[in-house]
Design a protein that fits this description.
Length: 257
C-alpha cells in the first residue's frame, strides 16, 4: 500500500505512504522492504521540497539511514538498491547512486521501477528523445511501460524552461500513451493540459485541465499547474482564481505567489 502511494506522489500521499510503512515495521521491525520504502519516500519528499510544505531539512539523512538499514537486512533485493540510489542522490553521493542503479539493473535487467529511478536520477537535459530511447533499449527497458513513458514525457517537459526548441510534441505523445494505461493518474492530464496550451490547442488544453481538477480538486500542485494552462491560453481570470485556490490550499506553496 505504501509503495503504491509513494510513486510520483503528492505531499499528502507521501505522508500516508510513510504511515503505512511505519505500520508494517510495527508488525515486523526487520522488514527490509518497509525501510526501503521509507527511504524512497523521504528522498521523494526532499526532491519535491519546493512544492511540498511538509518537507523537512533532515529528509535526506533519514532517507539514507533507512536505505542503509534495508541493505543491512536484505542486501540481495533489487528494491534495496533502488532505494539506496535515491537516498544517495539526495545526499549528493552521485557515484554511489550510479553504482546502486547499475547493481539493480544487473540483478533485474529491464526492471521498470529501476529504469524509472535511473531516469529520475540521471536527468535528460542533454539528450534527445531518440538518444534516450536507444540508451533505454540497451538497458532492455520496456518503452511501452506507462511509468517509463510518463517519466520520459515529464523529463522533456522540464526542458521547456529556457529552451524553445524542446521536443514538446514527442513529450505529449509519450504522455498520451501513458494516459491510456494510467487514466486516473492526475499528473498526466495536468501536464497534457500545459502541453496542449503550448501547442495552441485551447480546447484540448481545457479538457485535460478539467479532467485533472476532477481527479484531485484540492491538490495545490495540480491546481497551480492547471493555472499555467489558463495563463497560456489567455484566460487570465480563471488562472487567477486557480492561483488563489492553490494558495488557500497550501499557504506555504511559494510558486503560486
Amino acid at each position: 500500500k505504501g509503495k503504491n502511494l509513494s510513486t510520483f506522489a503528492t505531499g499528502a500521499q507521501l505522508e500516508e505512504s510513510m504511515r503505512f510503512y511505519k505500520m508494517a515495521l510495527a508488525e515486523d521491525i526487520d522488514y527490509a522492504l518497509a525501510y526501503a520504502g521509507l527511504a524512497e519516500t523521504y528522498a521523494s519528499r526532499h526532491m519535491l521540497k519546493d512544492f511540498i510544505s511538509s518537507a523537512q531539512p533532515d529528509d535526506p539523512l533519514k532517507a539514507l539511514q533507512y536505505a542503509q538499514r534495508a541493505y543491512q537486512l536484505e542486501p540481495n533485493l533489487v528494491e534495496i538498491y533502488q532505494a539506496l540510489a535515491m537516498a544517495q542522490t539526495v545526499n549528493g553521493q552521485i557515484k554511489e547512486a550510479q553504482a546502486s542503479i547499475q547493481k539493480a539493473l544487473e540483478m533485474k535487467p529491464g526492471d521498470s521501477q529501476t529504469i524509472v529511478t535511473y531516469l529520475i536520477l540521471k536527468g535528460l537535459q542533454k539528450l534527445s528523445l531518440e538518444e534516450t530511447k536507444k540508451e533505454l533499449a540497451a538497458l532492455k527497458a520496456d518503452l511501452n511501460d506507462p511509468w517509463i513513458q510518463f517519466t520520459l514525457g515529464s523529463a522533456y517537459f522540464e526542458q521547456l524552461e529556457g529552451n524553445p526548441t524542446a521536443d514538446i510534441h514527442s513529450a505529449i505523445e509519450l504522455l498520451e500513451s501513458a494516459q491510456k494505461q494510467l487514466p486516473n493518474y492526475v499528473l498526466i492530464p495536468t501536464m497534457l493540459s500545459v502541453g496542449y496550451a503550448i501547442e495552441q490547442k485551447p480546447d484540448k488544453a481545457k479538457e485535460m485541465a478539467n479532467q485533472a481538477l476532477l481527479l484531485e480538486p484540492d491538490n495545490p500542485i495540480v491546481v497551480f499547474l492547471v493555472s499555467i494552462t489558463f495563463m497560456v491560453i489567455d484566460e487570465l481570470e480563471q488562472a487567477e482564481q486557480l492561483l488563489l485556490k492553490s494558495i488557500q490550499l497550501s499557504p506555504k506553496f511559494g510558486y503560486a505567489y
